[in-house]
Design goal:
Layout (H helix, E strand, L loop, with lengths): L1 H28 L18 H9 L41 E8 L6 E8 L15 E5 L11 H10 L7 E5 L7 H22 L9 E7 L1 H11 L6 E7 L14 E6 L4 H16 L7 E5 L5 H15 L9
Parallel strand pairs: 3-4, 3-5, 5-6, 6-7, 7-8
Antiparallel strand pairs: 1-2, 2-4
């Protein structure tokens, strides 16, 4: 009876032992069986997934794919800032001339001085490369400053509207002259050194009818002296708001065109204009060649307004012969 129980026990245990031996052999003969469990429910299948991989013939150990990164919320892009552009003043709504600077010898003969030069709209146009232009030399300060005479603005506007012939304007340094010999030395420098330097650098027209001299304040008298001593070279005169003591006015060859101007009520200007105007009229300068203005206020705005009238008169646009 006992022997029967032993055989029965061995009979029941033997299949379990054989199964264990088979599983151990599979484990150590195929490394893929050691792959970590993969797939749904693989955590508690007792390696059934590994057996599936083995039966499928996949020898490469399966790896668990890394979890997908959590997407970051999109960053808010910085908004472009609106460019604050200054409001364009009305004076820039028409073609503008160009300002440049040039080094010339000093009037005192002690080195050089920098002067500003206005060239009219279209001067740099390749199609006009051979065109020459009348020139106005203006003695004084702040010729092109917006707070000063703003001559570049006035000339650009007049030329663009067809009220003025295109002109080169040269702002010369103040003469600081209050004696006849000082004025003569200054204008000699202009004719012999200053003007030739300008003609070499810019396309200026030749001849007295195309060359003007102007002065403001005390330098109005220097401009008058230039027209007196060099009448053969300077045929256009701008005598604006004379100040200081008036020199003795000598007889001179009358310029082609002259503007005498000052603010209304200016005692110095009235006396100077009353002394010069009869002499010019006696020399034959009628309304087409002489303009006398005693008008407007004695401030920057008044001066600029008189300058506009003076420029249009001294350099009128060419007459259109086709009309």
């Amino acid at each position: 009876m006992r022997r029967n129980k032993l055989f029965l026990t061995l009979f029941l245990v033997t299949p379990v032992l054989l199964l264990g031996v088979v599983l151990l052999a599979i484990k150590y003969s195929r490394p893929a069986m050691n792959a970590p469990p993969v797939g749904a429910g693989a955590g508690n299948t007792g390696g059934a997934n590994a057996i599936g991989e083995y039966l499928a013939g996949n020898s490469t150990p399966a790896t668990t794919p890394p979890p997908a990164p959590t997407p970051e919320p999109p960053k808010e892009q910085p908004k472009p800032k609106a460019i604050e552009r200054p409001i364009e003043p009305a004076r820039t709504t028409y073609p503008r001339g160009t300002l440049s600077k040039l080094q010339v010898s000093s009037p005192q003969g002690d080195g050089s001085v920098e002067i500003e030069v206005f060239t009219p709209p279209g001067y740099d146009n390749p199609g006009l490369a051979s065109q020459t232009y009348p020139v106005l030399f203006l003695i004084g300060q702040n010729a092109f400053s917006p707070e000063g005479l703003a001559l570049d603005d006035a000339a650009s506007q007049l030329i663009s509207r067809g009220n003025m012939d295109p002109v080169i304007i040269v702002a010369l340094p103040p003469s600081s002259a209050n004696k006849p010999e000082q004025r003569k030395a200054y204008v000699d420098w202009l004719i012999m050194k200053g003007a030739p330097s300008i003609s070499n650098a810019y396309r200026t027209s030749r001849g007295r009818t195309s060359t003007g001299i102007g002065g403001v304040g005390q330098d109005a008298w220097t401009a008058l002296a230039a027209a007196t001593y060099h009448a053969d070279s300077l045929g256009v005169l701008l005598f604006l708001e004379p100040r200081g003591s008036a020199p003795a006015v000598e007889e001179f060859q009358p310029p082609q065109r002259v503007v005498l101007a000052d603010a209304q009520g200016s005692v110095n200007g009235r006396d100077a204009l009353n002394a010069i105007e009869p002499m010019l009229r006696g020399a034959g300068l009628g309304p087409g060649r002489l303009m006398t203005m005693m008008s407007g206020s004695n401030d920057g705005a008044g001066t600029r307004r008189r300058l506009e009238h003076a420029l249009a008169f001294l350099f009128p646009p060419p007459v259109d012969g086709t009309k």
